Amino acid sequence: MNISKIPWTHGTWNPWIGCHAVSPECAGCYARADREKKGCDFSTLVLTSTWNAPYTLNALAGRQGCCAFMFASSLTDWFHHDADGWREDAWSVVRECKNLIWLVLSKRIKDAEACLPEDWTENFNHVWLGTTVGHRSSLGRVDALRQIPCSKRFLSIEPLLEDISTELDLDGIGWALVGGMSGELWQEKQMRIEWAASLYDLTRRTGTPFFFKQASTGKSEQGSNALGLHLAERQGLTADPKTVDLVREVPETPLPLLPLNREKGRRFSVKEWHRYQEQ
Q1: Which of 186, 152, 178, 133 is nearest to 25 (CA)?
Q2: How many other C-beta atoms are found inside a 10 Å radius of the C-beta of residue 277?
Q3: Helix (H, G, I), strand (E, B) or coil at 129
Q4: Which domains does the chain have, with CATH numbers?
Q5: Could you read off the pLDDT of 47-99 as tens digits, one per residue?
Q6: Closest CA to 202 of 248, 250, 170
Q7: Are 17 and 46 in contact (CB under 8 A)?
Q8: Which of 225, 268, 269 shows the shortest CA–CA distance to 248?
Q9: Cα 179 from Cα 85, distance rounded (Å)
Q10: pLDDT tens digits, one per residue of 241-264
């Protein structure tokens, strides 16, 4: 487990690391870039030594009578077939850590149902399943996600590569997390803030909690206030970049949630915001 820099989770757990690209959203993958900088072959899945780590956060949440978010597989895909021999043991960790709400995110959601444990409906109500959709070609994943029984479904609309708001169906979706691409390809594949705003408008009509993560910049977690600034300007208001709403909503949880640091990341200054709008 890592105490995460990601603002929508308390921790991350990667029982294995590695993956293969499957869709446009995989371009500029931060996990691949990080592993390759270390001289590792990201296309070969390898086990980690972190298998006991989730119990630490689970115990902390339990002592406080709370629950906590655990993002599963931030550096891999939970349903990657090369992990088929390890997943049953990973499910055992999830099963035992019931003070955690497990956020299991996958681009291979069409393969997920065949990879669920036999006692899925009885013992895994603390797992939320999600898929990544930031491009029209990936919209079929949302339909596949809707077919899987689970306590809550969520979408990682990051990186948002084009406007999908008119074609995205949020029926049965309980959380939408939106952000732009960071890293070396951010300018080539820059998210227009209007695309995020259109998705925000869609969630207002459907009542879906909305979490804006970041603008498109060279570094991750930058421009966390970009959507808030845009929405304010759209209403004819002048917002203070230091205090404007970050638009970071979180769904209700069965138990009180451990404090979530929604201020993680870096806000744009006025100058940076204007520069971003001009790009």
Answers
A1: 133
A2: 14
A3: strand
A4: 2-278 (3.20.20)
A5: 999 999 999 999 999 999 999 999 999 999 999 999 999 999 999 999 999 99
A6: 170
A7: yes
A8: 225
A9: 33
A10: 999 999 999 999 999 999 999 999
